[in-house]
Amino acid sequence: MAEDVLVFNTANTQVDTIQKFYDSPPSSQGGQGTRITKFSAPNDTTSSIDYKAYIFNSAGAVQKALIPQTTVVRDRVDLGASIVGHLIPPGGSLRMEQSVADGIEFYVTGNEL
């Protein structure tokens, strides 16, 4: 099964706001969910940045973070170990927030099932 790029070097546009980065195809379109295989949160700015990552269900109700507040110091990367391997349900979404707009540019790959 080929991996798909789910998020390609995309950053939050607003500070401390949960924003949608990827929608898993809904079951009405044959989607069976999306498995996250790799996750990168690199910080190549000049200061530390905090971020959180979430998987929402198809209803879009606020969920608790699968990656709770994590600080990525400058010139380092966080690989999101606690979210890799998880399934975004059909019609669900991958969402992130961060303490600096246009800071961390997330890169995520996975398999649409």
What is the structure about, briefly put?
This protein is mostly beta strands.
Notes on the structure:
- With about 110 residues, the chain is an all-beta fold.
- It contains no helices and nine strands.
- The strands form two sheets. Strands 1, 3, 6, 7 and 9 form a five-stranded antiparallel beta sheet that branches. A four-stranded antiparallel beta sheet has the order 2-8-4-5, with no helix packed on it.
- It is globular.
- The model has no long low-confidence stretch (mean pLDDT about 95).
- So how many helices? 0
Please, what is the average pLDDT? 96
Helix content: under 10%
Radius of gyration: 13 Å
Helix-strand category? mainly beta
Strand content: over 45%
- Please summarize the sheet with the most strands: 5 strands, antiparallel
Gross morphology: globular
Parts with pLDDT < 50 across at least 5 consecutive residues: none
Reading the helices and strands in chain order gives EEEEEEEEE
- Quote the distance from N terminus to C terminus: 9 Å
| Number of E-state strands | 9
Write the layout of secondary structure elements.
Layout: E1 4-10, E2 19-23, E3 34-43, E4 49-56, E5 67-72, E6 76-78, E7 87-88, E8 93-98, E9 106-112
Antiparallel strand pairs: 1-9, 2-8, 3-6, 3-7, 3-9, 4-5, 4-8
Keywords:
five-stranded antiparallel sheet; 113 residues; four-stranded antiparallel sheet; globular; 48% strand; mainly beta; 9 strands
